[in-house]
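Justification of computing resources. Each target in the renewal requires a structure prediction run like the one illustrated here; the chain below, 351 residues long, is used simply to show the kind of job we budget for.
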Amino acid sequence: MELEEGESADDLWRSFLSSFMELQSRFIPLKGTGQKFIQPKWFNREIRNLLRERRTAYRQAKASGDFDGHRRLNRNVKSKIRAAKRAEEVRVARLCKENPKEFFSYVNGRKPIRRRIGPLVNEDGALMHSDAENANLLNEYFSSVFSEESGPIPEPLDSFSEKLESMVFTQEEIERKIIELKANKSPGPDRFLPRVLREVHGEVSRHLCMVFNRVIQTGCVPRDWREAEVTPIFKKGDASQPSNYRPISLTSIVCKLMERIMVDKITAHLESNLLLRGSQHGFRQHRSCLTNLVEFFHFVFSEHDRDKAIDVVYLDFQKAFDKVPQPPPPSESACTGHRRKCGKLDRELAK
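Resulting structure tokens:
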């Protein structure tokens, strides 16, 4: 699998994608379950054999009229099933941090009622029954909610000397990020499986390094990275209104891999040049909502000890994500100290 140096970012990506998928289909077999009914994970061989013995004992008891043996076996089967279910719940609970996907799958499977999407109502009040109509209606709504800045955006003042003019990706940091991928994550539209990437990280990191650096040099991302598989999640209110659903997007695993490396580089630049205020606790290492609350309560009680009055105002934005301008303004990139190609890349990724 060789990539040409002179190709564009999109050509490099498509060459890598086609070669990788061909090798994946050739050397990684697919296994079908072949079962219409999927057995629960607590169902084991011992329980299966006990169920067979119970059926046999029932037929014998029905013929002889003596059900004592069948009753004892039935109590034993129920006891084994309860113990197997408890063991499965303990296993899922222990793995909830490492594998939250399995945890929520188990919880959702225990719900007596599962919420379906729709049927939705359009602007004319007509009820949409088919999946295609509901999907088109949600797509139109999700595409219409983004805000656009109508007035001029003020330019930030450059109060720093060091600027992050460009980025260079290395094979070592790409390998490190691939190893950190969670193997049970769902793939995006490009069908890259995190588990497969982790198994061949030493080989693919060299090619991804070439793709990532070409993306940074040109400021253009491959077209595949702009696609996403969108799942509407119901929040609250009337389930027939599209405005009460929020989109959850599954994007390219490889694109998110590059974004994580970019975040690390930008964060390191901001931290080293003291461009972040001390009051910012979100999206910073070793800081969280808990540290923000601790600092806030420390300030409140310190002022209270000095007999000073304190007024607290809480603000919340309804549908805050919809209010974010798309694409982001150029000044947003400029205020962090990274310009030119990096700022253009931010806008490309936001499309």
